Amino acid sequence: MPCRQGVTRAVLSLILLLQPVLAAGSTTLVVSASSSSVSAHTANPSRLSSAPSKCNGHSEFCTRSYSNITFVGSHDAPFVGPLPQQNQNIDIKAQLDMGIRYLQAQTHHSPLDKKTLQLCHTSCFLEDAGTLKNFLVTIKKWLDANPNEVVTLLLTNGDSVSISEFGETFSSSGITKYAYVPTTNPLSISDWPTLGEFISSGKRLVVFLDYGANTKQVNFIQDEFAYYFETAYDVTDPSFSSCSIDRPPKASATGRMGIVNHFLDIDIFGVKVPARDKAGTTNAASGKGSIGAQASLCEGLYGRAPNVILADFVDKGQVIKAQNALNGL
């Protein structure tokens, strides 16, 4: 979710004051540009190693284009815990182990070191989940241990940080060896590789940034809105009765993949916080207000299933069952 720049110090103080009460209740709530680039991979069968038998756990995905798969993703993936500004119950490795392959996270400059990128929820004084580098190292280790998996990262750039700083951080983590670079940019929605091609090439990490991407400087970090549209976030309607495009403004769905922000908030004194106690219903595979119901609404509007459905508390409900159903598995 994008950084809410308008949150005031008074509101932050109010949330921090309320944390013990809310947590206890049942409704708890670069290096130079050139050195930050990696070689592009052409998905040519003659250049690929042996084809995997399963891709992201399913043989069907090996021959299916990335743009023809629905991923249920973890919204604000690094913010783990019982407090109202935290969106997940389990850590990054556990999310990956349970089948999540799409991770979204907010980044900000560290208030203590402007050369360091931190994972912070709106403000580093409100929620600081550590450095972006450590987050990337965790994902790299998981990719090292799971050679037939493709993972996507969607990062937000709340402080308008230079793309070169992102490139430097990725490079220092060692994860760039897995980073995918499209053969053309932007890549047509019909030209994305299959998961089998990603895996055979060794380029198993796809990276997007919401604002500030520049592929001429850092070629493995893609501009989110060159490839996706998003529905509204901070939704407080538990029926999720809309699938209208929120960003980019006035965008068309034609030629873009779709991200559905399917996480429910509640309003407390004008501050929206995750509806933790509703996660089982919100993350259900079917039924009113479920992942399946909103995905069906979106498919009716745009003629195809969403590519990404972002959810809070991915360990609750039926997110993997919903993902499998949307992919016809």
From TrEMBL:
The keyword Disulfide bond does not apply. Keywords: Signal. InterPro entries: PI-PLC_domain, PLC-like_Pdiesterase_TIM-brl. The keyword Flavoprotein does not apply. GO terms for biological process: lipid metabolic process. Residues 1-23 form the signal peptide. Gene3D superfamilies: Phosphatidylinositol (PI) phosphodiesterase. This is PLC-like phosphodiesterase. The lineage of its organism: Eukaryota, Fungi, Dikarya, Ascomycota, Pezizomycotina.
